[in-house]
Amino acid sequence: MLEESSVSTLVNADEWRLRRELTDFYHLVDHFGWTELIFNHISVRLPDTVPGAQHQYLVNPFGLNYCEITPENLLKVGVDGRLVEPSAYPANPAGFALHGAIHEHRPDVHCVAHTHTDAVSAVAMKRSGFDHNNFYGAQFNGRVGYHDFEGITLYPEERARMLASLGDKHVLLLRNHGVAVCERDIPTTFLLLWTVQRAAEIQCKSGQLGGGDMVLSEAIRERCRSVATDLGSNMAVARMAFDAAVRRMRSDA
Questions:
Q1: What's the rounded Cα separation, in Å, for the pair 118 and 131?
Q2: Minimal CA–CA distance to 171: which of 200, 146, 150, 139?
Q3: How many CB atoms lie under 10 A from the CB of residue 215?
Q4: Are 12 and 18 in contact (CB under 8 A)?
Q5: What is the pLDDT of residue 2?
C-alpha cells in the first residue's frame, strides 16, 4: 500500500489534477454546510489519459468527513464502487449505486454529486418538484428528471430505473430523498449543484409567503437556461465560479 505522501509523485498528472479538484469540491460542500455526516458521494471519471483507467472513478473514502478528504486518500473504484487499488480506507459500493450507473451509461458526464440538504429534500417531498419560476430555477428548466423513492439506494435492480428517470437530463430529483446532479467536469457540476441549491432555498422561502407567485413563461425559462453556463459570451463561468469559491473558502479557513 502506498503512503499518502508518495501518491502525487506516482500518479498520472491528469489524475493528480482531478484529485486536487475533487478534494476542493468536497471541501466546498462542507464549507457551504451541504454535508450529511459521512454519507453521500461526489465522484469523477478518470480520463483516458490515465493508463488502465477505463470505467474507473475517484470517490470519497467511506467513514471520513468531507473536510478530512485529501487528494491522497481519495479512492479509485470501478462502476460497482469497489476498490481497484489498495487503500487504508473502505469503499462504499452500495452508496455508489447511483453514481456507477450514471458514469457507466452517460459518457457525456464526468462528475456526479449527490446531496440531501434541507431545501432540496423539502422540494423533493413536493409532488410538483421544482417550479422553475425563480432566477435560479429557470436556469435548469427542462434539465430535471424525477425518480420515485424505492427506499435506501442499495439494490442493483434500481439502477436501470434511475437511469431511465434521468434520461438525458443533468439533474435527478430523487423524490422523498434528495438530488443528484451531473455534468461534463467538476466546476460545471459544482455550479449546477449550487444553482439547484439556491433554487430550492428560494422556492422554499417563497412558499412561506402569502399571495400567488409570478409564473415565468416557458420562453423566458428557456432564454435563461440557454445562456446560464456562459452568460452568452463564451466565458468559462463555471471555472471562474469554482475557483472563486475555492479562494473564498481558503481565505475563511
A1: 17
A2: 146
A3: 10
A4: no
A5: 43
Q: In the block, which residue shows the cell 469503499? A: 91
One-letter amino acid at 167 equals: G
Show Cβ contacts of residue 188 under 8 Å, excluding neighbours closer than 6 positions: 111, 229, 238
Would you call 228 helix, strand, or coil by DSSP? Answer: coil
**What count of residues does the chain have?**
253
- Strand 178-183 to 171-174 pairing: antiparallel
Residue 2's SS3 state is: coil
CA 38 to chain centre: 16
Residue 29 Cα distances to 55, 89, 165, 194, 233, angstroms: 25, 21, 25, 9, 28
Yes or no: say if 42 and 26 are a contact pair by the CB < 8 Å rule. Answer: yes
pLDDT at 1: 37
Grid coordinates given for 70: 485529501
β pairing state of 111-115 and 178-183: antiparallel
SS3 content of the chain, % helix, strand, coil (to 5): 45, 15, 45
Determine the Cα–Cα distance for residues 2 and 180; give it in Å rounded to an integer.
32
Query: What are the 10-residue block averages of pLDDT along the chain, 253 residues in total?
Result: 53 92 98 96 88 84 96 92 89 81 93 97 97 96 96 81 96 97 97 98 95 93 87 82 97 87
Strands 57-59 and 144-147: unpaired
**This model's pTM is above 0.90:** yes
| Structural contact between residues 124 and 176, judged by C-beta atoms closer than 8 angstroms | yes
Nine-digit cell at 250? 481558503
